[in-house]
Amino acid sequence: MKLAVLLSALPFYEQQAAHKEIDITGLTIDSREIKSGNLFICIDGAVVDGHTFARQAEEQGAAAILAERPLDVSIPVILVKDTLRALAPLANAFYAHPSKDMRVIGITGTNGKTSMTYLLESIFRANEEATGVIGTIQMKIKDETFPVKNTTPDALFLQKGFRKMVDQGVDTAIIEVSSHALDMGRVHGTDFDIAVFTNLSQDHLDYHESFEDYFHAKSLLFSQLGNTFDPEHPKYAVINSDDRYAEALTKSTAQPICTYGIEKEADIMAKDIQLASNGTTFLLQTPKGEARITSKLMGKFNVYNMLAAVGAAMCSGIPFETICSTLQETTGVAGRFEPVMAGQSFGVIVDYAHTPDSLENVLTTIKSIVKGSIITVVGCGGDRDKTKRPLMAGKAVQYSDTSIFTADNPRSEDPQDILEDMVRGLESNQYVIVPDRTEAIQHAIEIAGDGDIVLIAGKGHETYQIVGNQVLDFDDRLVAAEAIKRLGLGE
After folding, report:
1. Which residue spans of the chain are classified as CATH 3.40.1390.10?
2. According to its UniProt record, which cofactors does this protein need (predicted)?
3. SS3 (DSSP) at 293
């Protein structure tokens, strides 16, 4: 693409020895990935400033540089006020606005986003549609998977991924949309067809100035659905009517709203819910009809996830029968209420719950099915929202018979300091502190008896532990299974 054509996506810019006839072969924000003919976009990030790599970019063959200040290089430099904000329109232009060529469903909320993406993937695939998924775990295009760095990748990765999806015939892309991504403009230019809201509880207050700021960031997904109505290209907002922010969220969008819920009246509802240790049954009521659903997914929170998926699928025109049959067949997502079965006489469940609300949801679900005691292993991440640490500990001791507090990605913080934050002010003494996560899991397995359930919370699908600047191999599921085997408690 000619540089002049690419720059037409920007309304204002200055040129430092620019030459518009240059051919641009690609865009990159990482100096290590520069290829000949690339436009290198300098991002002043939280850790490094891309401007310091300008000379390196030139030496590696960059054809031009987008920057916020003049640079001492011989290749053309285009100056803009904010390179991060310019990234989205440039990426959209370079990859020919791929989100316009397929249905895009964005899911936001504190909990349930990942489960929702895979529920919807199952429904659309059952309807013989090709799907793409982007979220916490990975990017998936049909059956091929790719690693991602953030829940919602930067605009360049996102638009490049969308282009790959379109080129491979994807009909529907389903993506998790984090509050960080919305606040930082990573999804600018993405043509969302459906926005889904799961719930809102405390998280990421290390980044957002307040809870209201956190909510505002989430609401941006709905305002970005647009203000016009197009019968040929309808858009919808799917909102959890039981959440206290539901009414405020409805004011953020001009598009038709589909509500779902259990407690309050909604378009899509679950009635006569029966929770069990092997799944859930409920009566699904929708404008398209009703059906008795028997699902392998456990817990009330999963009922909400299923209702949200029903709403998004119905707004997409998926047949009611296909939706219902898929809900009854799906088995869930790795690391989300995932059992570890190694022949032991007690339950072991690994879950990604890392907020007070999600931990409470998981523990109340376990409480409804456990025959013995609940033993919870949980920690809090370092360099993250400190205010939720005592809340996490409080939920653990409230719903567990024994709580074991341990490390969970301490990053640059001392794990002992994090643990002290967690237990500060706790009135209950039904807990122990075991800083080493492997030892904590082993201790939980050692004290578990017949009919008990051990919950290992916080990391879920993650296969690493971040200590300082190191990313160490660590998988709660493998550690638990090995402990069961080593102690001779399983097969």
Report:
1. 3-95
2. Mg(2+)
3. strand
Give the CATH number of domain 338-487; options: 3.10.20.310, 3.90.190.20, 3.20.20.300, 3.90.228.20: 3.90.190.20
How crowded is residue 446: how many other Cβ atoms within 10 Å of its Cβ? 10
pLDDT of res. 16: 83
Q: How many helices (H) and strands (E) are present in the chain, helices listed first? A: 15, 24
pLDDT along the chain (491 residues), means of 10: 94 83 94 95 88 95 96 94 96 97 95 90 97 91 89 87 98 93 90 95 56 84 94 96 93 97 97 86 97 92 95 98 96 86 91 91 89 96 93 96 97 96 92 98 96 95 94 96 93 72
Q: Which residues are annotated as a binding site?
A: 31, 109-115, 150-152, 178, 186, 384, 408-411, 458, 462
- Asked if 348 and 453 count as a contact pair (C-beta separation under 8 A), the reply is yes
For the chain, how far is it from start to end, CA to CA, in angstroms?
61
Q: Which residue type sits at 221?
A: L
What kind of fold does domain 3-95 have according to CATH?
Answer: 3.40.1390
Tokens encoding 90: 């440039």
Distance of CA 237 to the CA centre of its chain: 18
Q: What is the CB neighbour count within 10 angstroms for residue 229?
A: 11
Binding site listing for ATP: 109-115
Feature table: binding site for meso-2,6-diaminopimelate: 384, 408-411, 458, 462
Residue 457 burial (10 A CB sphere; 0-12, 13-18, 19+): buried
CATH 3.90.190.20 segments of the chain: 338-487
